[in-house]
Amino acid sequence: MPGTLVAMPGVLPEGEPVPRDGSLPATARRAVGARGFGVYVHVPFCASRCGYCDFNTYTASELGGGASRETYADSVLAELALAARVLGDSPPQRVDTVFVGGGTPTLLPADDLARILDGIDRVWGLAADAEVTTEANPESVTPESLKTLRAAGYTRISLGMQSAAPGVLAVLDRRHSAGRATAAALEARDAGFEHVNLDLIYGTPGETADDFAASLAQVVDAGVDHVSAYALIVEDGTRLAARMRRGELPYPSDDVAADRYLAAEAALGAAGFSWYEVSNWARSAAAACRHNLLYWTGADWWGLGPGAHSHVGGVRWWNVKHPSAYAARLAEGASPALAREVLSADEQHMEDVMLRVRLASGLPLDVLDEPGRAGAERARDAGLLDAGAYARGLVVLTLRGRLLADAVVRDLLP
Protein backbone atom coordinates (compact mmCIF):
# COMPACT_ATOMS: atom_id res chain seq x y z
CA MET A 1 0.00 0.00 0.00
CA PRO A 2 1.31 3.48 -0.80
CA GLY A 3 0.36 5.08 2.48
CA THR A 4 -1.26 4.30 5.79
CA LEU A 5 -2.88 6.46 8.44
CA VAL A 6 -0.39 6.50 11.31
CA ALA A 7 -0.16 7.99 14.79
CA MET A 8 0.55 6.80 18.27
CA PRO A 9 -0.91 3.28 18.57
CA GLY A 10 -3.67 2.37 20.98
CA VAL A 11 -1.51 -0.38 22.48
CA LEU A 12 1.98 0.50 23.66
CA PRO A 13 4.86 -1.93 23.08
CA GLU A 14 6.71 -3.75 25.80
CA GLY A 15 10.19 -2.66 26.87
CA GLU A 16 12.66 -2.44 29.70
CA PRO A 17 12.01 -0.32 32.82
CA VAL A 18 12.88 3.39 32.84
CA PRO A 19 14.69 4.91 35.87
CA ARG A 20 12.35 6.92 38.08
CA ASP A 21 14.20 10.13 37.21
CA GLY A 22 14.11 9.33 33.47
CA SER A 23 17.91 9.37 33.17
CA LEU A 24 19.48 8.17 29.92
CA PRO A 25 22.68 6.19 29.30
CA ALA A 26 25.73 8.38 28.79
CA THR A 27 26.13 6.94 25.29
CA ALA A 28 22.72 8.32 24.31
CA ARG A 29 23.62 11.83 25.47
CA ARG A 30 26.94 12.17 23.65
CA ALA A 31 25.65 14.00 20.59
CA VAL A 32 22.07 15.08 21.28
CA GLY A 33 20.65 16.86 18.26
CA ALA A 34 23.64 16.23 16.00
CA ARG A 35 21.19 15.18 13.26
CA GLY A 36 18.54 17.66 14.36
CA PHE A 37 16.32 17.95 17.43
CA GLY A 38 12.55 18.22 17.61
CA VAL A 39 9.88 18.33 20.29
CA TYR A 40 6.58 16.53 19.93
CA VAL A 41 3.69 17.54 22.20
CA HIS A 42 0.73 15.18 22.43
CA VAL A 43 -2.64 16.68 23.33
CA PRO A 44 -4.94 13.71 24.00
CA PHE A 45 -8.32 15.46 23.98
CA CYS A 46 -11.12 15.15 21.44
CA ALA A 47 -14.66 16.51 21.40
CA SER A 48 -15.86 13.14 20.07
CA ARG A 49 -14.26 9.92 18.87
CA CYS A 50 -14.10 9.29 15.13
CA GLY A 51 -15.14 5.81 14.07
CA TYR A 52 -11.74 4.90 12.59
CA CYS A 53 -9.61 6.33 15.41
CA ASP A 54 -7.29 4.12 17.45
CA PHE A 55 -5.07 6.96 18.68
CA ASN A 56 -4.37 7.76 22.32
CA THR A 57 -7.21 10.25 22.73
CA TYR A 58 -10.01 10.84 25.22
CA THR A 59 -13.35 12.60 25.18
CA ALA A 60 -14.52 14.42 28.31
CA SER A 61 -16.54 11.40 29.43
CA GLU A 62 -13.52 9.09 29.07
CA LEU A 63 -11.06 11.17 31.10
CA GLY A 64 -12.14 10.29 34.64
CA GLY A 65 -10.57 11.99 37.64
CA GLY A 66 -7.07 13.34 37.95
CA ALA A 67 -6.82 14.94 34.51
CA SER A 68 -8.40 17.92 32.81
CA ARG A 69 -7.85 20.24 29.88
CA GLU A 70 -7.55 23.14 32.33
CA THR A 71 -4.41 21.74 34.02
CA TYR A 72 -2.92 19.94 31.04
CA ALA A 73 -0.44 22.63 30.01
CA ASP A 74 1.00 22.58 33.54
CA SER A 75 1.61 18.82 33.29
CA VAL A 76 3.36 19.21 29.93
CA LEU A 77 5.57 21.95 31.35
CA ALA A 78 6.40 19.68 34.30
CA GLU A 79 7.61 17.00 31.90
CA LEU A 80 9.57 19.63 30.02
CA ALA A 81 11.33 20.56 33.27
CA LEU A 82 12.16 16.88 33.81
CA ALA A 83 13.50 16.65 30.25
CA ALA A 84 15.73 19.65 30.91
CA ARG A 85 17.17 17.85 33.96
CA VAL A 86 17.75 14.63 32.02
CA LEU A 87 19.63 16.43 29.23
CA GLY A 88 21.11 18.98 31.61
CA ASP A 89 24.79 18.57 30.78
CA SER A 90 24.18 17.64 27.12
CA PRO A 91 21.24 19.72 25.85
CA PRO A 92 20.55 20.17 22.15
CA GLN A 93 22.07 23.31 20.67
CA ARG A 94 18.59 24.35 19.54
CA VAL A 95 15.10 23.04 18.83
CA ASP A 96 14.66 22.79 15.06
CA THR A 97 11.00 21.77 15.03
CA VAL A 98 8.00 21.55 17.33
CA PHE A 99 4.92 19.53 16.43
CA VAL A 100 1.78 19.63 18.57
CA GLY A 101 -0.42 16.66 17.68
CA GLY A 102 -3.36 14.76 19.04
CA GLY A 103 -6.16 14.34 19.52
CA THR A 104 -7.25 17.86 18.84
CA PRO A 105 -4.61 20.26 20.17
CA THR A 106 -6.79 23.27 19.41
CA LEU A 107 -9.33 22.14 22.02
CA LEU A 108 -6.83 23.69 24.44
CA PRO A 109 -7.02 27.46 24.72
CA ALA A 110 -4.67 29.14 22.26
CA ASP A 111 -2.98 30.81 25.23
CA ASP A 112 -2.09 27.37 26.68
CA LEU A 113 -0.55 26.30 23.36
CA ALA A 114 1.40 29.56 23.39
CA ARG A 115 2.56 28.90 26.96
CA ILE A 116 3.83 25.43 26.04
CA LEU A 117 5.78 26.81 23.08
CA ASP A 118 7.26 29.56 25.25
CA GLY A 119 8.32 26.92 27.77
CA ILE A 120 10.17 24.95 25.09
CA ASP A 121 11.91 28.11 23.95
CA ARG A 122 12.96 28.99 27.50
CA VAL A 123 14.35 25.51 28.22
CA TRP A 124 16.23 24.70 25.01
CA GLY A 125 15.84 27.67 22.69
CA LEU A 126 13.98 27.65 19.38
CA ALA A 127 16.10 27.99 16.26
CA ALA A 128 15.60 31.30 14.49
CA ASP A 129 13.93 29.43 11.61
CA ALA A 130 12.18 26.79 13.72
CA GLU A 131 9.17 25.10 12.18
CA VAL A 132 6.31 25.06 14.71
CA THR A 133 3.24 23.03 13.75
CA THR A 134 -0.09 22.36 15.40
CA GLU A 135 -2.69 19.93 14.21
CA ALA A 136 -6.30 21.07 14.30
CA ASN A 137 -9.76 19.90 13.44
CA PRO A 138 -11.45 22.40 11.12
CA GLU A 139 -14.30 23.10 13.55
CA SER A 140 -11.91 23.72 16.47
CA VAL A 141 -10.33 26.93 15.13
CA THR A 142 -11.57 30.44 14.50
CA PRO A 143 -9.95 33.41 12.78
CA GLU A 144 -9.22 34.83 16.23
CA SER A 145 -7.64 31.67 17.67
CA LEU A 146 -5.53 31.26 14.53
CA LYS A 147 -4.23 34.82 14.88
CA THR A 148 -3.33 34.13 18.52
CA LEU A 149 -1.42 30.98 17.57
CA ARG A 150 0.42 32.74 14.78
CA ALA A 151 1.39 35.60 17.09
CA ALA A 152 2.69 33.05 19.62
CA GLY A 153 5.15 31.66 17.07
CA TYR A 154 3.29 28.83 15.33
CA THR A 155 4.35 28.80 11.68
CA ARG A 156 2.47 25.80 10.28
CA ILE A 157 -0.96 24.22 10.76
CA SER A 158 -2.17 20.78 9.72
CA LEU A 159 -5.94 20.50 9.31
CA GLY A 160 -7.79 17.18 9.32
CA MET A 161 -9.98 17.45 6.24
CA GLN A 162 -10.22 13.71 5.36
CA SER A 163 -12.80 14.25 2.60
CA ALA A 164 -15.03 16.79 0.88
CA ALA A 165 -17.85 14.27 0.54
CA PRO A 166 -20.55 14.48 3.25
CA GLY A 167 -21.26 10.75 2.99
CA VAL A 168 -17.61 9.85 3.53
CA LEU A 169 -17.34 12.21 6.50
CA ALA A 170 -20.41 10.54 7.98
CA VAL A 171 -18.88 7.06 7.67
CA LEU A 172 -15.72 8.35 9.38
CA ASP A 173 -17.82 10.06 12.11
CA ARG A 174 -16.24 13.42 11.33
CA ARG A 175 -18.14 16.37 12.80
CA HIS A 176 -17.16 19.19 10.44
CA SER A 177 -19.10 20.11 7.32
CA ALA A 178 -17.74 19.30 3.89
CA GLY A 179 -16.51 22.83 3.23
CA ARG A 180 -15.21 23.75 6.67
CA ALA A 181 -11.67 22.38 6.21
CA THR A 182 -10.89 24.49 3.17
CA ALA A 183 -12.47 27.53 4.83
CA ALA A 184 -10.21 26.98 7.87
CA ALA A 185 -7.20 26.70 5.55
CA LEU A 186 -8.02 30.09 4.04
CA GLU A 187 -8.46 31.55 7.54
CA ALA A 188 -5.03 30.20 8.51
CA ARG A 189 -3.48 31.88 5.49
CA ASP A 190 -5.21 35.14 6.39
CA ALA A 191 -3.86 34.80 9.96
CA GLY A 192 -0.32 34.73 8.56
CA PHE A 193 0.56 31.02 8.71
CA GLU A 194 3.48 30.39 6.38
CA HIS A 195 2.55 26.76 5.73
CA VAL A 196 -0.83 25.03 5.71
CA ASN A 197 -1.44 21.29 5.30
CA LEU A 198 -4.66 19.43 4.60
CA ASP A 199 -4.94 15.73 5.49
CA LEU A 200 -6.95 13.36 3.32
CA ILE A 201 -8.04 9.76 3.91
CA TYR A 202 -8.88 7.65 0.87
CA GLY A 203 -10.49 4.25 0.43
CA THR A 204 -13.34 4.79 2.90
CA PRO A 205 -16.26 2.42 2.20
CA GLY A 206 -18.74 4.17 -0.04
CA GLU A 207 -16.24 6.70 -1.37
CA THR A 208 -16.45 7.01 -5.15
CA ALA A 209 -13.74 8.10 -7.57
CA ASP A 210 -15.72 11.31 -8.08
CA ASP A 211 -15.81 11.90 -4.30
CA PHE A 212 -12.05 11.70 -4.08
CA ALA A 213 -11.57 13.83 -7.19
CA ALA A 214 -13.76 16.50 -5.59
CA SER A 215 -11.69 16.32 -2.39
CA LEU A 216 -8.49 16.80 -4.35
CA ALA A 217 -9.99 19.71 -6.28
CA GLN A 218 -11.01 21.44 -3.04
CA VAL A 219 -7.52 20.95 -1.62
CA VAL A 220 -5.91 22.51 -4.67
CA ASP A 221 -8.39 25.40 -4.72
CA ALA A 222 -7.72 26.12 -1.02
CA GLY A 223 -4.21 27.27 -1.92
CA VAL A 224 -2.42 25.12 0.67
CA ASP A 225 1.24 24.25 0.15
CA HIS A 226 1.21 20.73 1.62
CA VAL A 227 -1.07 17.69 1.34
CA SER A 228 -0.97 14.39 3.20
CA ALA A 229 -3.06 11.50 1.87
CA TYR A 230 -3.36 8.15 3.62
CA ALA A 231 -5.17 4.93 2.86
CA LEU A 232 -7.78 4.08 5.46
CA ILE A 233 -6.62 1.37 7.85
CA VAL A 234 -9.25 -0.38 9.94
CA GLU A 235 -7.95 -0.88 13.47
CA ASP A 236 -9.30 -3.51 15.85
CA GLY A 237 -11.39 -2.06 18.65
CA THR A 238 -12.71 0.89 16.65
CA ARG A 239 -16.35 1.57 15.86
CA LEU A 240 -15.57 1.27 12.15
CA ALA A 241 -14.09 -2.22 12.64
CA ALA A 242 -17.19 -3.30 14.56
CA ARG A 243 -19.45 -2.08 11.76
CA MET A 244 -17.46 -4.06 9.22
CA ARG A 245 -17.55 -7.22 11.31
CA ARG A 246 -21.34 -6.89 11.48
CA GLY A 247 -21.47 -6.55 7.70
CA GLU A 248 -22.79 -2.99 7.76
CA LEU A 249 -19.84 -1.74 5.69
CA PRO A 250 -17.44 -3.48 3.31
CA TYR A 251 -13.76 -3.69 4.13
CA PRO A 252 -11.41 -1.33 2.21
CA SER A 253 -10.10 -2.55 -1.13
CA ASP A 254 -6.37 -2.50 -1.88
CA ASP A 255 -7.11 -2.06 -5.59
CA VAL A 256 -9.32 0.95 -4.90
CA ALA A 257 -6.68 2.43 -2.61
CA ALA A 258 -4.06 2.09 -5.36
CA ASP A 259 -6.39 3.82 -7.83
CA ARG A 260 -6.95 6.65 -5.34
CA TYR A 261 -3.20 7.07 -4.84
CA LEU A 262 -2.64 7.35 -8.58
CA ALA A 263 -5.45 9.92 -8.76
CA ALA A 264 -3.79 11.93 -5.96
CA GLU A 265 -0.43 11.88 -7.71
CA ALA A 266 -1.98 12.99 -11.00
CA ALA A 267 -4.09 15.80 -9.54
CA LEU A 268 -1.48 17.12 -7.15
CA GLY A 269 1.31 16.87 -9.69
CA ALA A 270 -0.76 18.85 -12.21
CA ALA A 271 -1.28 21.52 -9.54
CA GLY A 272 2.44 21.95 -8.88
CA PHE A 273 2.91 19.61 -5.92
CA SER A 274 5.75 17.09 -5.75
CA TRP A 275 5.93 14.01 -3.56
CA TYR A 276 8.74 14.00 -1.02
CA GLU A 277 7.50 11.04 1.03
CA VAL A 278 5.18 8.33 -0.19
CA SER A 279 2.12 9.87 1.49
CA ASN A 280 3.12 13.53 1.42
CA TRP A 281 3.26 16.21 -1.28
CA ALA A 282 4.55 19.80 -1.07
CA ARG A 283 4.57 22.77 -3.45
CA SER A 284 8.25 23.43 -2.68
CA ALA A 285 11.11 22.05 -0.62
CA ALA A 286 10.42 24.77 1.96
CA ALA A 287 6.86 23.48 2.39
CA ALA A 288 7.90 19.92 3.34
CA CYS A 289 7.21 19.05 6.97
CA ARG A 290 10.62 19.34 8.60
CA HIS A 291 9.46 17.72 11.82
CA ASN A 292 8.43 14.53 10.06
CA LEU A 293 11.69 14.58 8.14
CA LEU A 294 13.48 14.48 11.50
CA TYR A 295 11.62 11.25 12.29
CA TRP A 296 12.30 9.75 8.89
CA THR A 297 16.04 10.50 8.97
CA GLY A 298 16.84 9.22 12.47
CA ALA A 299 17.18 12.53 14.33
CA ASP A 300 16.45 13.05 18.05
CA TRP A 301 13.18 14.24 19.54
CA TRP A 302 11.54 14.46 22.94
CA GLY A 303 7.86 13.53 23.09
CA LEU A 304 5.84 15.34 25.77
CA GLY A 305 2.44 14.06 26.87
CA PRO A 306 0.64 10.78 27.65
CA GLY A 307 1.54 8.01 25.23
CA ALA A 308 4.15 10.18 23.50
CA HIS A 309 7.25 8.48 22.11
CA SER A 310 10.77 9.94 22.27
CA HIS A 311 14.11 9.07 20.68
CA VAL A 312 17.52 10.27 21.82
CA GLY A 313 20.80 8.70 20.74
CA GLY A 314 19.40 5.29 19.86
CA VAL A 315 17.18 5.04 22.98
CA ARG A 316 13.44 5.11 22.41
CA TRP A 317 10.87 5.37 25.19
CA TRP A 318 7.15 5.95 25.57
CA ASN A 319 5.01 7.52 28.25
CA VAL A 320 2.08 6.04 30.15
CA LYS A 321 -1.10 6.37 28.13
CA HIS A 322 -3.75 7.83 30.37
CA PRO A 323 -3.65 11.55 31.15
CA SER A 324 -4.45 10.86 34.84
CA ALA A 325 -1.51 8.46 35.24
CA TYR A 326 0.71 10.87 33.33
CA ALA A 327 -0.18 13.81 35.58
CA ALA A 328 0.16 11.70 38.73
CA ARG A 329 3.69 10.57 37.93
CA LEU A 330 4.82 14.10 37.23
CA ALA A 331 3.19 15.36 40.42
CA GLU A 332 5.34 12.84 42.30
CA GLY A 333 8.46 14.14 40.56
CA ALA A 334 8.85 10.92 38.59
CA SER A 335 9.31 10.34 34.87
CA PRO A 336 6.04 9.53 33.07
CA ALA A 337 7.89 7.03 30.87
CA LEU A 338 6.38 3.53 30.93
CA ALA A 339 9.19 1.63 29.22
CA ARG A 340 12.05 1.99 26.77
CA GLU A 341 14.29 0.12 24.36
CA VAL A 342 17.90 0.58 23.35
CA LEU A 343 18.07 0.04 19.60
CA SER A 344 20.79 -2.26 18.35
CA ALA A 345 22.85 -1.36 15.29
CA ASP A 346 20.83 -3.86 13.25
CA GLU A 347 17.54 -2.35 14.44
CA GLN A 348 18.69 1.17 13.62
CA HIS A 349 19.77 0.01 10.17
CA MET A 350 16.42 -1.67 9.56
CA GLU A 351 14.49 1.44 10.56
CA ASP A 352 16.75 3.67 8.50
CA VAL A 353 16.08 1.57 5.41
CA MET A 354 12.33 1.31 6.07
CA LEU A 355 11.89 5.05 6.47
CA ARG A 356 14.35 6.53 4.00
CA VAL A 357 13.22 4.33 1.13
CA ARG A 358 9.90 6.19 1.37
CA LEU A 359 11.59 9.54 0.74
CA ALA A 360 12.03 11.14 -2.67
CA SER A 361 15.57 12.04 -1.58
CA GLY A 362 16.23 8.30 -1.46
CA LEU A 363 18.45 5.88 0.41
CA PRO A 364 22.18 5.65 -0.43
CA LEU A 365 22.93 2.26 -1.92
CA ASP A 366 26.12 1.98 0.10
CA VAL A 367 24.21 1.62 3.38
CA LEU A 368 22.82 -1.72 2.15
CA ASP A 369 24.61 -5.00 2.67
CA GLU A 370 25.31 -7.34 -0.25
CA PRO A 371 21.92 -9.12 -0.14
CA GLY A 372 20.21 -5.72 0.17
CA ARG A 373 22.03 -4.38 -2.89
CA ALA A 374 21.02 -7.48 -4.80
CA GLY A 375 17.41 -6.81 -3.79
CA ALA A 376 17.75 -3.22 -4.95
CA GLU A 377 19.02 -4.38 -8.32
CA ARG A 378 16.02 -6.69 -8.70
CA ALA A 379 13.68 -3.85 -7.76
CA ARG A 380 15.32 -1.57 -10.32
CA ASP A 381 14.99 -4.22 -13.03
CA ALA A 382 11.32 -4.64 -12.12
CA GLY A 383 10.72 -0.91 -12.61
CA LEU A 384 10.20 -0.20 -8.90
CA LEU A 385 13.30 1.99 -8.54
CA ASP A 386 14.36 4.98 -10.62
CA ALA A 387 17.17 3.83 -12.92
CA GLY A 388 18.80 7.27 -13.13
CA ALA A 389 18.91 7.67 -9.35
CA TYR A 390 20.20 4.11 -9.05
CA ALA A 391 23.08 4.98 -11.37
CA ARG A 392 23.92 7.85 -8.98
CA GLY A 393 23.98 5.46 -6.02
CA LEU A 394 20.51 6.14 -4.65
CA VAL A 395 17.43 3.99 -4.03
CA VAL A 396 14.46 6.12 -5.15
CA LEU A 397 11.01 4.68 -5.76
CA THR A 398 9.23 5.06 -9.08
CA LEU A 399 5.49 5.71 -9.04
CA ARG A 400 4.88 1.97 -9.34
CA GLY A 401 7.45 1.45 -6.62
CA ARG A 402 5.51 3.77 -4.32
CA LEU A 403 2.47 1.55 -4.75
CA LEU A 404 4.62 -1.40 -3.67
CA ALA A 405 6.87 0.36 -1.16
CA ASP A 406 6.48 -2.29 1.55
CA ALA A 407 7.48 -5.04 -0.87
CA VAL A 408 10.56 -3.06 -1.94
CA VAL A 409 11.60 -2.63 1.70
CA ARG A 410 11.26 -6.36 2.29
CA ASP A 411 13.55 -7.00 -0.66
CA LEU A 412 16.18 -4.63 0.75
CA LEU A 413 16.14 -6.29 4.17
CA PRO A 414 16.50 -9.98 3.31
TrEMBL record:
It is found in: Cytoplasm. Keywords: 4Fe-4S, Chaperone, Cytoplasm, Heme, Iron, Iron-sulfur, Metal-binding, S-adenosyl-L-methionine. Residues 31-274 form the Radical SAM core domain. It comes from the Bacteria. Probably acts as a heme chaperone, transferring heme to an unknown acceptor. Binds one molecule of heme per monomer, possibly covalently. Binds 1 [4Fe-4S] cluster. The cluster is coordinated with 3 cysteines and an exchangeable S-adenosyl-L-methionine. Belongs to the anaerobic coproporphyrinogen-III oxidase family. HemW subfamily. NCBIfam families: hemN_rel. This is Heme chaperone HemW. It comes from Micromonospora chalcea.
